[in-house]
Amino acid sequence: MAHHSWAEPYKIKMVELIKMTSREEREKAIREAGYNTFLLRSEDVYIDLLTDSGVGAMSDQQWAGMMLGDEAYAGSRNFYHLRDTVEEYYSYRYTVPTHQGRGAENILSQILIEPGDFVPGNMYFTTTRLHQELAGATFVDVIIDEAHDPVSEHPFKGNVDFAKLDALVERVGAGHIPYVCIATCVNMAGGQPISLENLRRLRKWCDQHDIMLVHDMTRVAENAYFIQQREHGQQDRSIREIVHEICSLTDAATMSSKKDAMVNIGGFLAMNDPGFYEKACALVVVYEGLHTYGGMAGRDMEALAIGITESVQDDHIRARVGQVEYLGQKLIAGGVPVVQPIGGHAVFLDARRILPHIPQEQFPAQALAAALYEESGVRSMERGVVSAGRDAATGENHMPKLELVRLTIPRRVYTQAHMDVTAEAVFSVMEKAEAIQGLRFTYEPEMLRFFQARFEPVA
Question: Which of 26, 219, 240, 259 is an active site residue?
């Protein structure tokens, strides 16, 4: 069978010029940023792979939609368009707009969690876990063991381990588990999907135990693509159909629309239960804005509604994941240790294997991200011990098995040539790996420290 290349299902209509920098300029910039790529100025970055959140390129249809913003304080027509689109594509009956995903996580946690509760999930995400903890819950990881192993080729590393779930129920009782939080395309595991079979089984498990199933649906379309490509019997279904089924298996969802739906800002909390919706409407007014705008401008709700329809198109998602796969395969061919299989939104470099001389206490992934920027102007993100934070009780660092640097590909932004340049930059850093030094904190914030922490090289 001949292998067919994919090409982008769009053509470029407008460009944003970017600045090339010298090595001296980059060394100064990363030093002033305390070796934290989050603290770099974007104008000093050549290829920005920090995140795929809010940095996608909107389509001409989305930009046209921005002109149709109904900026009424109450009852904006864009809200009703968004609500109807969420129901049509994602199945949820009620939508509460929020300024972004963590606004939805906050409201969800405030409503559903009682102090002393336990919330199982298929690996933590930083803001999700923090909102759960601030509401008084303990996060419990119930993802399969393969997810913590960067070299395992398991096709669905986002799957839930039911033995771990059963053990939790036995230990704390179903009454202390308000919901199971399931992420599609698990970010911290390397953008790894959950299978439809596993999710259907989880639905039954939740029904048996009378526990809600909440969906972190930030990258649901990418997850649907992996199901279509990898899961038996799913090859002939459209992305749109699979996305709808995934959502319909869950009771509620938090969405950061800045990923899949390609808008620069926005999110929502969605659900099917009218009582839950009523409580969410009451809280959204406190934290975000009226329940028909919830921290979003009318024009942004319109762009989001259009972005949802574009995100589930097969051609779009094939090219989106295809670009990530292209970079990943190029790195693997060059001998770079990465998390396998390649995920849906990013390629994750295995900093432990690239920098074996740096102990985890000296933040090898943070050091690798800083070195990659110095070398090339490519900005990436640490996803290891710095992101994992400290144990609230002991004050000790959480020591995750995965110590990763994330090369996150924005949607519809970069070309294949940018991916080639990125791969060459990683190869250059690999050649000089032994010269990279570990780091230590010079400033450590109490919460979500990876955003604002500062470091210096360990002498």
Answer: 259
